[in-house]
Specification:
Blueprint lengths: L45 H12 L23 E12 L2 E16 L2 E14 L5 E4 L2 E10 L7 E4 L2 E4 L14 E12 L2 E11 L8 E12 L3 E10 L12 E13 L3 E12 L4 E11 L9 H5 L15
Antiparallel strand pairs: 1-2, 1-14, 2-3, 3-4, 3-5, 5-6, 5-7, 6-8, 7-8, 8-9, 9-10, 10-11, 11-12, 12-13, 13-14
Length: 320
């Protein structure tokens, strides 16, 4: 899967509104991709907003390894497929950026190689100025694992992502130019425990936006036959004065997976908030399906649903 944060998730592409400048003080954020990732704001009115999003967009987001923002290096198995339906939001005191419905598709096209795409719809809800809803920027990428995991060695991979300018720049739903994410991810499994993380750099060639680094690390554990639960630390640099995220922030997110049918059908969820930096809230809620070839082994199930937006270790995200 793939997943989100700032521009890291699909709905987190930020942009500077050309209409009356919506003023940089009110900072408008386009939602598009992390991927790669349902982020949800949970302020005072957060729970009702999230409930509404779920009702509308679920049964079912890049922002990075659904449901988490951190991604992993593990691609979908050869000739296997993953599909997510999700909704979410990334929010600050100045702006709420809900996304939904959103759809993620991953395909094990070659050995150790995964094709990834996210198509999403969402809204821009600034504290001042006009709001908008529509198609967001579209995320496509290739995940490639170049070091396989052994008993004594972690697996390592990369997941370059291109965010295509399909969202309306003038309405605040897209950046208006193609942007790029270039990360490296590492993962190691220890029985029921899985840990993975890494970081990368996002390139956004648009006035009002900045290129910025991002990084994360996650630890998760299988709990019985029905649950996988975990927590992550996620960091992103300032994304530019045209966004509500023109600051450095470190977040802690908690979430996991509930297996309706392991591993073929799962519920993914996550919620987090800044622990250092200005207030920012992330949330994700989605449904996940996997199929193709022969059924993955039970022990590998958690990694099949996780990142890799996203949205999710392999259980997403994955993404955005």
């Amino acid at each position: 899967m793939a997943c989100f944060t700032g521009t890291a998730p699909v709905w987190n592409n930020k942009r500077k509104d050309t209409l009356a400048m919506r003023s940089i003080t009110a900072s408008v954020t386009p939602i598009g991709s992390r991927c790669a990732a349902m982020t949800a704001l949970l302020g005072a009115a957060g729970l009702p907003v999230l409930a509404a999003l779920v009702a509308i967009a679920l049964p079912g987001s890049a922002f990075a390894g659904p449901p988490f923002q951190t991604d992993d290096p593990e691609p979908v198995d050869l000739h296997h497929y993953e599909f997510y339906v999700f909704s979410g939001s990334d929010s600050t005191p100045n702006e709420i950026d809900p996304i939904g419905p959103a759809f993620e598709f991953n395909w094990g096209v070659l050995p150790n190689t995964q094709f990834h795409a996210i198509l999403s719809f969402g809204a821009v809800l600034p504290s001042e100025g006009p709001s908008a809803y529509g198609l967001l920027d579209t995320e496509v990428g290739i995940k490639y694992r170049f070091i396989s995991q052994t008993k004594d060695r972690p697996e390592v991979g990369t997941f370059p992502i291109v965010e295509l300018p399909t969202g309306s720049y003038s309405r605040g739903l897209g950046v208006g130019k193609t942007s790029y994410k270039l990360p490296i991810w590492i993962q190691k499994d220890f029985g029921p425990w899985t840990t993975y993380g890494g970081g990368g750099y996002q390139v956004v060639p648009r006035d009002g936006f900045k290129n910025f680094p991002y990084a994360g690390w996650l630890l998760q554990r299988d709990v019985g036959e029905k649950w996988t639960l975990g927590g992550e630390l996620w960091y992103h640099g300032p994304e530019g004065p045209a966004t509500p995220l023109d600051h450095t922030a470190t977040m802690f997110d908690f979430g996991g997976y509930y297996y309706f049918r392991k591993p073929a059908f799962q519920l993914l969820f996550a919620l987090g908030h800044t622990i250092a930096g200005p207030s920012e809230t992330y949330a994700y809620l989605g449904l996940y399906w996997t199929w193709g070839g022969k059924e993955p082994k039970e022990g590998a199930a958690a990694n099949t649903a996780g990142p890799a937006w996203s949205f999710a270790a392999r259980p997403s995200v994955a993404g955005h």
